[in-house]
Design a protein that fits this description.
With 265 residues, the chain is mainly alpha-helical. The protein has helices spanning 3-6, 13-38, 71-78, 85-91, 96-108, 139-143, 146-154, 157-176, 185-197, 220-223, 227-233, 237-253, and strands at 128-131, 134-137, 208-211, 214-217. A hairpin with a 2-residue loop joins strand 1 and strand 2. Helix 5 (96-108) crosses helix 8 (157-176) and helix 7 runs parallel beside helix 12 (237-253).
């Protein structure tokens, strides 16, 4: 046998490529798998922002009611309520709308309306006298309030109801400056009138007792009344009845709620 016959045959080209191709395929598979296993997940697409609906513009605030410079109009409307000369004198005061609102609020709380109603102050001084061995208010002290009672009794209640409605925006503005939150002018007036009309008219002159330079009521129920109610008591029984009757008439003409309905904070 010749040497050429015993020599091994050279490797086939296909056999020599078999291992490199297998390795390449394995690398390709592993590489592809590692891509799918190790790649960072892509974040989901961001949601499309919703388009906000335009906010409708707020309605314009009602114009503020100006209180300054309104006395002339108030006087013009009020002068028809009474022809009494003292009533015309009362209307000569300044800042009438605020005086009205302030006095109503004070009386509604049982306090003295002396400051805003200074033009109604009676002449003279308070006097006490002895009657049947008891210290009581002198009749002369009661008569100091006859003029106030006369003016109040002369008011035209029906006309007052009409004027009240005409002046309501102005009076509401004055009332809102100092009233407790949530209380309407109608409620305040009803409370004030209710306080005064509920004061019992004494059948006999209430006994007084000295208290420093002043006097107090010997009856603890009368002494426990507010300053506003005590002002009414000092007017005397006859004047009290007249004033209470007119206040009841005015409350009806103004269409006010009952005092019970007006009992709000």
């Amino acid at each position: 046998m010749s040497p050429s016959e015993n020599a091994p045959l050279p490797p086939s080209p296909l056999r020599s490529l078999r291992w490199p191709l297998g390795i390449a395929a394995a690398v390709a598979l592993l590489g592809g798998s590692s891509y799918f296993l190790l790649r960072t997940p892509e974040p989901p697409p961001a949601p499309t922002p919703a388009v906000a609906e335009p906010t409708p513009p707020a309605p314009p605030a009602p114009p503020a009611v100006q209180l300054s410079g309104t006395d002339a109009r108030v006087r013009e409307l009020l002068k028809g309520l009474s022809s009494d000369a003292d009533f015309a004198r009362w209307l000569a005061s300044e800042d009438l709308a605020r005086r009205f609102a302030a006095s109503a609020n004070l009386i509604a709380e049982g306090q003295s309306p002396r400051m805003p109603l200074s033009f109604m102050a009676p002449a003279g001084t308070f006097r006490a006298t002895k009657r049947h061995g008891h210290l009581v208010t002198s009749p002369e002290s009661h008569t100091r309030y006859d003029g106030v009672t006369r003016v109040i009794s002369s008011l035209d209640a029906k006309r007052a109801g009409q004027v009240y409605q005409e002046l309501k925006p102005l009076l509401d503005a004055a009332h809102a400056e100092l009233a407790p939150p949530g209380r309407s002018l109608d409620a305040t007036l009803s409370r004030a009138i209710g306080r005064l009309t509920r004061v019992p008219v004494p059948r006999t002159a209430p006994e007084l007792t000295p208290k420093g330079a002043l006097y107090a009521y010997a009856d603890p129920d009368l002494e426990a009344l507010g300053a506003a109610e005590k002002h009414l008591l000092r007017m005397g029984p006859e004047n009290m009845r007249k004033v209470q009757a007119k206040l009841t008439e005015l409350a009806a003409a103004l269409g006010l709620p009952s005092p019970e309905q007006a009992r709000v904070p």
